[in-house]
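Example 4.3 (complexes with small molecules)
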Amino acid sequence: MAQEIKVPDIGDFDAVEIIEVLVAEGDTVEKEQALITLESDKATLEVPAPVAGKITELKVAEGDSVSEGDVIAMVEAAEAEEESEAEADKPDPKADDEKDNDKAKSEDKPDKKADEKRGADRPAANTDDSTVEPKASTPASDDHDYDCDVLVLGSGPGGYTAAFRAADMGLNVTLVERHSVLGGVCLNVGCIPSKALLHSAKVIEDAANMASHGVTFGKPEIDLAKLLDYKQSVIDQLTGGLKSMASKRQVNVVTGTGTFSDDHTLALEGNDDTDQITFNKAIICVGSEPVMLPGWPEDERIWTSAEALSPDELPESLLVVGGGIIGCEIANVYAAHGTDVDVVEMTDALIPGADKDLIKPLTKRMKARCGNIWVNTKVTGLEAGDKLTASFEGKDAPESKQYDRVLVAVGRKPNGAKIGADAAGVEVNERGFIPVDKQCRTNVEHIFAIGDVSGEPQLAHRATHQGKVAAECCAGEKAAFDAKVIPSVVYTDPEVAWTGVTENQAKAEGIEYTKSAFPWAANGRAIGLDATDGNTKLIFGTDGRIIGAGAVGPGAGDLIAETCLAIEMGADAHDIGLTIHPHPTLAETVGMAAEAEAGTLTDLYIPKKK
Ligand code: FAD
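Answer. The structure with flavin-adenine dinucleotide bound is encoded below.
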C-alpha cells in the first residue's frame, strides 16, 4: 500500500521553496535517496526517502513552497522494508528496550542518514563473532535479600566507571578487585604509566631536535629511580582519586579474587572477612592479560609491557617482539632513553590495521631512532644464556642476535575463562571473550560483561562507555552501546590516530568513499613545531557525510576527537569546513581537509579538474 512521504522537521523554516525535484513518478528509490532540494535564505537541504520503494505519485513541483508535514509524494515500500517493519512489530521485550533507547536517542539528535554501508561499519559492542542468546536464569529479584544490588568484578576503567555510575543512580554497589589498588591495567600498568614515560621520551627528542634550530642542550642524564617515581606519582594521584571517589559514593570496595559459584553468588579468595558475596545483578569487567609466546624459556629478562614499564635498569639492548601500538610506544620510550632497540613485526608494516600513509612518518622516525625495524619477520626462537639470543626468519633480519631484554607485545588475551563463568551459566567463547549484546548483557539476563573481556577493540574508552551502559541497564534505564566509532591512538612521536572507516577497510570491504587530506607542511603551527611530515585526512561516504578520519603528527590523538563527534553527528564536509577553527592550530588541518573536500580550500592551490 502506498504511504505518504512528508517534509520532515526542517528547523525554524516555513514555506521553503523547492528548487529541484530529483525523482519522477514511477521511479524506484533507495532508502535515504534525496527526493527534493529545498532552499531557504539560510541553507539548502535535501529531503530523503524514509523507505526504499516506488514513487507512485508526486505531490509537488519545482517552485512550490513547502513546510514541515506537507506531503511530497506517495511511495509503495519495497517488500523487504515492509517485512522488516512487520518483524519490528513482533513483541520482544528486550529488543523493545533497545528500540526505545534508539528512539529516545534519535529524538534527541538530528536525523543521521544511516546509510547501510556505514551501518555495517559500526563497531557493535560485541565485536566477537558469537551471538548471544538470552538464557533462562534465576530471575534477578528486588525482593531477595542479596548482599548488594550490583556486584562489579574488576576495577579497571570499565569496572570503576560502572560501579560509580550505578552508585550515582542509587544502587547498592560492591566492587571486587584482586589487587589492593583500584584502576586495573589502564591506570597501573597500561595507558597511564606508558604515557608518563612517553612524555619523558618526547621531551628528550624535542630537546635533541632543537639543536638544528640553534638551541643545544647537553646529553640527557637519566636518573631511572626518579623517573619511575614520577611515573608512580602520576599513577598514585589517579588511583588515590578513585579510592576517594569510591568512598564518597559509598561503593563497598572488597579486595579479593572472585569466581562465580552460581548465578547470584561470587566466591572470594584472599579476603579475611568474607568468602562469598551474593548479588542481584553483576557486571564482569576482569580485563585481559598479555599473551606470551609458547615454548619460550621462563626468564625475568623476558618482559611483558608491565615489566617494561617498571624496569630495574635501562638495558643496553632491547628486542621488541610485535610492532603494534604497545610495542611501538614502549620501543619509543626505550630508544629515547638510550637503549639500542630493535622491533620485529610479523606483518608487512608497523601498527597493523592503520592506513599505511599514516604510519609512514612514524616508521621513518622509528627507523632513525631505533637500531632496526624488521617487518615481514618472525622470531623463531629465544634462548636464555648470558644474554637472550633471538633467532629470526625474514628477509632483512640476521639469523640470530643477542639482547639484554626482550619485550613480548603480541596482543592481550581476555580473562573470561578464569572466573568460573560456567557456574553462573555465562557463556565464554574459545578465545576467552564473554559475548554480549548491545546492552552489554551476557547470555544470562542479569549478568553483564564490559571492557577487554567483552570483545575488541581492547581500549579503555570502550570499557568506560560500556561501563555506563551496563550500570544504567542495571538501574532499569534503557541504555545501549551504539557508538559509531571507537578511535585508536598510538602515542608515539609522531602520534598516529584514526577513527571510523579506514582506507584499508574501505578497500577490503568494497565501501565507496572519497578522501581529502591536508598536509601539515602547509599549516603554520605545524611548521613552527617542526612537524611538517604530519598529515590529516578525512574519508567521506557516498552521501557526503564523514565516515572516517586519520591524522599523524604531534597531538593527533586530540585532533581526532573532533572527527569522532563529526561522524556521530552525521556531519558533511561543509559542516566541518564552515566551523571556525582557531588559528594557528593543528586543528585547522581538520577544517582544511574538509574544505578540500568541499572545494572551498584556499590554503593550498589545487588545480581544477578538467
Ligand atoms: P582492566 O583494566 O584489565 O581491569 C581489569 C581488572 O579486573 C584488573 O584490575 C584485575 O586485577 C581485575 N580482576 C581480574 N580478574 C579478577 C578476579 N577474578 N577477581 C577480582 N578482580 C579481578 N587503552 C587505551 O584506550 N589507551 C591507551 O593509551 C592504552 N595504552 C595501553 C598501554 C599498555 C601498555 C597496555 C597494556 C594497555 C593499554 N591500553 C590502552 C588498553 C587498556 O589498558 C585496556 O583496554 C583497559 O584497561 C581495559 O579495561 P577493563 O576495565 O576492561 O580491564
